[in-house]
Structures are given as C-alpha cells and as structure tokens.
Write a structure and sequence with these properties.
single chain; about 20% strand
C-alpha cells in the first residue's frame, strides 16, 4: 500500500556544509563551506521526497512554510553530531522562533450570546 503525503513523517536535518555547492531554496544564494546548513525533506504528490537546503542561522529556513510543523530544535536530525557552539546557535534560533510564534498568535474569539427579546 502506498502512503499518502499526510502519513509520511516530516523530516528536518542540520549539518555543517561540506562544500559550497548547495544553494538556499529560499534566497537562492550559495551556502558557504563551513556554515550551518538546514535540510527539509519535502513531500511531492507522486510519493517521492526531495531535500531542500537552507541557510541555518538566517531567517531563510524559518520563513519557509514547512518549518511551522517543527516544535523545537530537538526534532532536527544530526543536531548531536555538530559542535556544541554550533548547536547552541541553532537552539537559540529555534527558541526565538517559538517566542515570536507565541507572541504573534491571535487571541481566541469569544462566543457571543444570543439574547432573545
């Protein structure tokens, strides 16, 4: 049985760019060797997944709509493999993203009571 796009788990990875060949999906600029690089595995309609790279510390990764599904840095594959200083930078970026999302939420609308006269 084939899995639909809703049944396939959402994947995100972080690593250090081994070369300068990859480019950011959001801003289309090259990711320099040694920089933090994020990868999202995006599901397409035919059932295949394609990896899309993003700058790790810039807003490029967090502007992409699929990142709204991530709840924190602990969901990133490869987070434990990168150096501690880099890991702290990534976690700080996610913390600021979550705080912005909490502040930016719209207040819940109250139900109106219907008064019969």
């Amino acid at each position: 049985a084939k899995k639909t796009w809703r049944e396939v788990p959402h994947d995100a990875e972080v690593d250090i760019a081994p070369s300068s060949r990859s480019s950011c999906r959001q801003c289309r600029e090259k990711i320099v060797k040694g920089d933090i690089r994020m990868r999202l595995w995006l599901q397409f309609h035919k059932g295949c997944k394609v990896g899309a790279y993003f700058h790790g510390t810039m807003s490029c990764f967090f502007e992409y709509p699929e990142t709204a599904k991530l709840s924190g840095a602990e969901e990133l594959v490869g987070l434990k493999k990168i150096p501690d200083s880099t890991r702290k930078i990534v976690e700080k970026c996610f913390d600021s993203l979550i705080k912005e999302a909490d502040v930016g939420e719209e207040p819940k609308k109250k139900k109106r009571k219907i008064v019969k006269s």
